Amino acid sequence: MYQAIFDADTYIAILEPRHAEELFALIDGSRESIGKWLTFPTVTNEIQDTRNFIKRSLNRLAANDGYWAGIWYKGQLAGSIGFLNWDWGNKKTEIGYWLGKEYEGLGLATKACTCLITHAFSDLQLHKVEIRMATKNAKSKAIPERLGFTSEGVIRDEEFLNGEYHDKIIYGLLMDEWKELNRNNEC
């Protein structure tokens, strides 16, 4: 399956059924930190839930509509990143990502985003990449800001999570902007 190596310690690879137990353990060990901003930990209660997620992701890849990959660091699954969909008519996509709590602050999400952005523009020939997150999620917001995305607006009360509504910010990056930033990174 697809794999992109960043350096001696870090790579991403398409999630496969054989990764289900490791992925479930990572989610289970980071439920509180991940669940603060994302809903999927509340519906990932057993390994079969993770197997089903991986199966759905592989089906989306086969249907040419996105995929999820694991982020590995020093031989351990550290998180996940994916294309939520591919909007071929409008030539755009949205990237989502998360890391286990012990892997935050190492630059892994930024490296993984750089790889998927490069893939979206160079290989898939898309025109736009979007990233969305809760406006209060400072760590996640730092990634698109660091990579040159533009804040395109806020959707108020977009998601009800943990007993409260969260506004979501939309960041966008166009192919020409990425090229102008000299982001010709290979992955």
Q: What is the CATH domain class?
A: Alpha Beta
Number of helices: 6
SSE topology string: EEHHHEEEHEHEEH
What would the average pLDDT be, to the nearest integer?
94
The name of the CATH topology is Aminopeptidase
Summarize the main sheet: 8 strands, mixed
* Estimated structural class: alpha+beta
Considering DSSP H and I runs of 4 or more, what fraction of the residues is helical? 25-40%
Give the termini distance in whole angstroms: 14 Å
Name the CATH homologous superfamily: Gcn5-related N-acetyltransferase (GNAT)
In total, how many domains does the architecture comprise?
1
**Uncertain runs:** none
CA radius of gyration is 16 Å
Task: Explain what the structure shows.
The structure is a single chain. The chain has 187 residues and is α+β, with helices and mostly antiparallel strands. It has a single domain, classed as 3-Layer(aba) Sandwich (Aminopeptidase), CATH 3.40.630.30. Helix content is 33%, strand content 35%. The chain contains six helices and eight strands; from the N terminus they run E-E-H-H-H-E-E-E-H-E-H-E-E-H. The chain has helices spanning 20-29, 31-35, 47-62, 108-123, 138-146, 175-180, and strands at 3-5, 10-14, 67-73, 76-87, 92-99, 128-134, 150-161, 164-174. It has an eight-stranded mixed β-sheet with strand order 1-2-3-4-5-6-8-7, with helices on both faces. A hairpin with a 2-residue loop joins strand 3 (67-73) and strand 4. Helix 1 crosses helix 3. The protein starts with a strand and ends in a 7-residue tail after the last helix.
